[in-house]
Amino acid sequence: MAETQNIAVGVPRESAPGERRVALVPKVVGRLRAAGLDVVVEPGAGGGALMSDWLYEEAGATLGDPWACEIVVKVAAPTPDEIHRLKPGTVLIGFLGTDVEALSTADVHGFAMEAIPRISRAQSMDALSSQSSVAGYLAALLGAQHLTRFYPMLTTAAGTVPPAKVLVLGAGVAGLQALATARRLGAQTTGYDVRPEVAEQVRSVGAKWLDLGIEAIGEGGYARALTDEERAEQVRRLNEAVIGYDVVITTAQVPGRKAPVLVTGDSVTAMRAGSVVVDLAGESGGNCELSVPGEAVVRHDVTIVAPLNLPAGMPEHASELYARNVQALLELLVDQGKLRLDFSDEIVAAACVTRKES
Amino acid sequence: MAETQNIAVGVPRESAPGERRVALVPKVVGRLRAAGLDVVVEPGAGGGALMSDWLYEEAGATLGDPWACEIVVKVAAPTPDEIHRLKPGTVLIGFLGTDVEALSTADVHGFAMEAIPRISRAQSMDALSSQSSVAGYLAALLGAQHLTRFYPMLTTAAGTVPPAKVLVLGAGVAGLQALATARRLGAQTTGYDVRPEVAEQVRSVGAKWLDLGIEAIGEGGYARALTDEERAEQVRRLNEAVIGYDVVITTAQVPGRKAPVLVTGDSVTAMRAGSVVVDLAGESGGNCELSVPGEAVVRHDVTIVAPLNLPAGMPEHASELYARNVQALLELLVDQGKLRLDFSDEIVAAACVTRKES
Questions:
Q1: Alanine dehydrogenase/pyridine nucleotide transhydrogenase NAD(H)-binding domain location, by residue (chains A, B) (predicted)?
Q2: Is B161–A321 a contact, with Cβ atoms under 8 angstroms apart?
């Protein structure tokens, strides 16, 4: 039985509420099959992304129990029940989060997609970036959807309405994609970041650069946390700046910390009625003081939207990009159809957050 | 008391469920005041559009009972209760609908915004067009929001996703705005209409023209109803065409009739999973056989959205455009601060659907 010699990759159905993504899509299944891997998909795994079991089978996957496979690929971190189903020695890939003790106890090799180092050789595995692209795009659309006004300038027989002004705070992948999307839709865009070196990238997507005169260059491409004095000054100057905008999209997060408050309740009060704040930092506490994570609320006639897990809102392409990131990592972990974990490789070492005792 | 000599325009709070628009906005209140009209706004009238009473007062309106005014401007047709509050001889302006018997009994002058003739002198009063612009823009956004994929092409380190293909059926104001918006967002767009003379307009917004070889030129800029044979052939050819698109936006309506079915259940079945149908004809029965008016449903892994009263979803600008249309009509009905209904005027005669017996 030649089939049993291949390593099998299991694709469970995601169990987190609202999670419509799936770790592998049919298109990528075909590529993994070509690379000598079997793929076992849990029935319904692609259902949230509107991809049927049949599409997986057509791509060469079999339907079955993904947890019995040598490699299990997920999007979200596994629940305690799911960890219980993993065999010792399994390679588990996903956004594993910070609490990896249970994985360690289960004796699995855990590879965290969010721990992939930001080096050029690992770009194709950078799932934080690919999912941030989706989030930034959807954030700009959410702003348009909740705004009581048009994004583009509109000229009608009865007169003209001016274009919306969109400000994006934080010019990482999500922020740049939000700027690009809002601009595409016809808005006038402005970007802000504490890292002055991203000004050129902001301008490259057609946006103006908002210079508040406060810098905070950190490690690994992220911003460092500001000092208390810098923070107070930043918030004061931002409060003045945001008032002129129809839509403010905030994307400021510092890894492992509560998100900084950039838009205070006072500045919401001063915004023009009908304006919108889209807060992408809802999961880590929010960049807007009035955000209610997971909800859209109206405060002082301003709509404040703080979506959770935005990439799940565009599940096919979010899954496809994620699956390609996973595929790139798998190609590093598997050689000629066999697992070969080379912990001397910088990427393998960095991404591995728990390791089976050997 | 000079004030009492001015004619007063009353602006009620709209009572229809989900109606967030208002017939006059503060900006237009100022212009009417300058033209010698008083404006009386019901408290909370702008609330759905997030425009506070204070903004109206600042523009020169007073808060009070709008139903006592000589002129009452509305968006939606009045309810029986509201008609009861109108004094005989009142001029009522709004989308009055086809059932105007109660208005006639109440002895009011009813001017229906949807009855404004489509002549160039009346373009500034064309509320059907201005509201269709809003609907078309929002329809393209709704498609993007429900699609499981990106509209624009996206190039990432892990590969490229292709742009979405968007087909718009019906190239009136709503259809053209939907095409323009989807194209702005990066989609590849195609337009179809039974009126071959709009092909140039479709191309002018960057879309391809889908030629099915069936024509139906009607009166007043609308399409005529097709014969049964033409309809069957049209649906057969459309069924073949829609299969290749990620998003199909339908805008086909024939005034006073049930909307034609353009997208059958069979063609939904044949569409690629994750695709979207946005049906703008939900209010008149729908252009898609599987539409559920007012809802977004998933059938055969395709999302079918049939929104009701889409312009209410962008209430400030929808109201502002509508208010400018109303302002233009008021300027025709009022001369130097006095009502002067000149029924020999083509626009006045056409728009007047009920007239006080004199």
A1: 144-306
A2: yes
